[in-house]
Amino acid sequence: MLWVASLCLLLAPSILGAPTNKQRQKVLLISFDGFRWDYDRDVDTPHLDKMAKDGVKALYVTPPYLTITSPAHFSLLTGRYIENHGVIHNMWFNTTSTEKKPYYQTQFVNEWWDNGTLPIWITAQRQGLKSGSLHFPGTASSYQGEVAMVQEVEPLFYNYKNETAWRENAGKVMDWFSNQDLDFISLYFGEPDGIGHRYGPDSPERKEMVKQVDRTVGYIRHSAEQHGLNDRLNIIITADHGMSAVYRNGLVEEITLSKIPGFSFSDIAFHLVDFGPSGMLLPKPGKLQKVYDALKGSHPHLHVFKKEEMPERLHFAKNDRILPIILWSDPGYVINGYFPVQFHKGEHGFDNQDMDMKPFFRAVGPAFHKNLEVGPFETVDIYALMCHILGIKPEVNDGHLNSTKHMLVSSTTTQGEDVDFLNNIFNGLAAVAGFLVVVFIMVTSHKLLKDKRKNKRSVSSDQLPAKEMIYQTSL
Fold first, then answer.
1. Which one from 69, 78, 117, 139 is the annotated catalytic residue?
2. Residue 151 · residue 134 · CB < 8 Å
3. 170 and 297 fall within a common domain
4. Domain termination residue (choose one: 395, 411, 427)
5. pLDDT tens, residue by residue, 397-432
6. 69 assigned to active site
């Protein structure tokens, strides 16, 4: 019976479905800043169309409020709403000294980013994976003393429009995957946001930039194929927010706080305005109600809230960094402080429920279904999706895997994987048991046949003539 036991040991792994040679899945998260959900509708985008046919396309996704670059990108990396991860603005600020740092300098203020929430780079590395990031907001910071294993921060005055640099960056990422065996990389492109600001979302310049994005998507997918990554690499492409056209040329009554009756900047200790359609105010002690009463209802397209009165759906109140009064305007309007200083033709930062603020979403790779279009979901849900594909346990987050798991070829949750594993064991054991039954029957049949032949020989001996029996006995 030794051969039977050996055969069972050899067959057990295959019967149980053990993935003895299964390769770990990799994830590339790409953001094209300011790519609105419908930017591919008025431009020929063959590579994005091919990606949708080969994978998954969402109608649109909903970013967190505040719909600006750094906060929304950190939500992609953490799966948390902005009030929960604490990167509440593109600008670091100090309300006591009234100091502010612009977007690029804020990338290097470590305590602004390292605020108790871990990005996926660190979580993956703590669970045995390798992570990298190229130009993604938050890359320059360390988190609880740890950084992405491989990282590159763009230099000051970087040209975000340079298509040659885009291809070079895509090549670096593919080298990181293939030569350094990274498991997760985040890759950032600064367009079409800049073009959308300068020329507007409906401009010919924006359409040309979308064509450049499309060419780059094609280049990235071709590069992945050349590096032999297609059977392991899952590419997720999205954005931080959309873009809305700004009303100009005296077509509307602009929002200028200094012109509002009863409001005075002398009542304000610190403010963040003149940066688009959103703003925050810190009134001087005892002046909060006065400031609030002056601004509330002062303009038909200006929304004014005390921090504690903010709509819960926006998830932008429960953080000490958020100032006591929050302002935002309707699409097409911007908030000016003392006088108009903004001349952009396109802006973002509006309510995240406005359709102009919705980004796009594409995904392709071995984990995803093909030629599948899905309904909208929130960008905070992308974090849980990436953790699931990578096979890592996510940190506490505000996303839901249930919102995206239907996009996956294997659409089980982590708990479902445990159930499936137990089912596989049960089914495998049942198969082994069945195999042993077959072996038992074969062995038993063989023994019975052998016994039958032995009995037949005994019967034949009993029927020999007496003379032969005497001869045999004498022998």
1. 69
2. yes
3. no
4. 411
5. 999 999 999 999 985 434 334 434 444 444 444 444
6. yes
